[in-house]
Amino acid sequence: MKVLVCDDEALARDRLVRMLRDAANCEVVGEAENGLDALSKVATLTPDLVLLDIRMPVMDGIACAEELARLPNPPAVIFITAFDEHALAAFQVEAIGYLLKPVRRDQLNEALSRATRVNRAQLQHIREQANDDGKPGATRNHITARTHRGLELVPLDEIYYFLADQKYVTVRHTKGQVLIDETLKELETEFGDRFIRVHRNALMSATYLEGLELLPSGQYQVRLKGIPDKLLVSRRHLADIRDKMHNL
User: Fold this and answer.
1) Is 95 among the domain residues?
2) What is the pLDDT of residues 32-68, one digit of tens each?
3) Domain of 58, in residue numbers
4) DSSP string over 41-55
5) Are 115 and 29 in contact, with CB atoms under 8 Å apart?
6) Which residues have CB under 8 Å from 145's CB, separation 6+?
7) What is the CATH number of the domain that holds 202?
8) Which positions fall inside the HTH LytTR-type domain (predicted)?
9) Is 79 in contact with 98 (CB distance < 8 Å)?
């Protein structure tokens, strides 16, 4: 992964460069002194990731990130700053990380790991672009969620289920859960071959379907492999789930 370091303080850049040289799969391709300098170097060096200070002369980091976001294939951005009041602005320009100085090595490595996942997803997106007739290509292999840690990608094969609750959908996956603002209908249309509608508010992965249980109330609930969570099954979807189980 090619990295550009942007900070108006030379000592701060030097420290980051040293830490990056010890990180796996990272190549520091350049340094910049402010946002305008960073934009120029992104155009020539095409980094995968920009480590971007926020408070800088000429052009600050937020303005730089806004310009980068307009590029056809923008690099990922991680903000590094001594001030924590910029977190909301960083979130709004879709930074994947926000680290406070002095940066700890473990925090930087975690942010770099997220950047690697984002870049892999971008590459997959390019591969799945429209066909020659202009129709959409393959479906996504990840779900994207914005959290307090930045942009997170959840692989589809790690998702147990989607559960709708008012305006958001909870994505339950092998490492926890995140919220997204997509609808169940949109998710069912895109991933209907991999996820089963079990209720008007729930889709579950066919991969993790383990069995059905009859409740004293006469309703059924579905068991999932690997987790104790159980989902209620509506009567209208019961036959589809039984058919799916017979084909497993």
Assistant:
1) yes
2) 999 999 999 998 999 989 999 988 999 988 888 888 8
3) 2-126
4) HHHHH--SEEEE-SS
5) no
6) 151, 152, 154, 171, 178, 179, 180
7) 2.40.50.1020
8) 143-247
9) yes
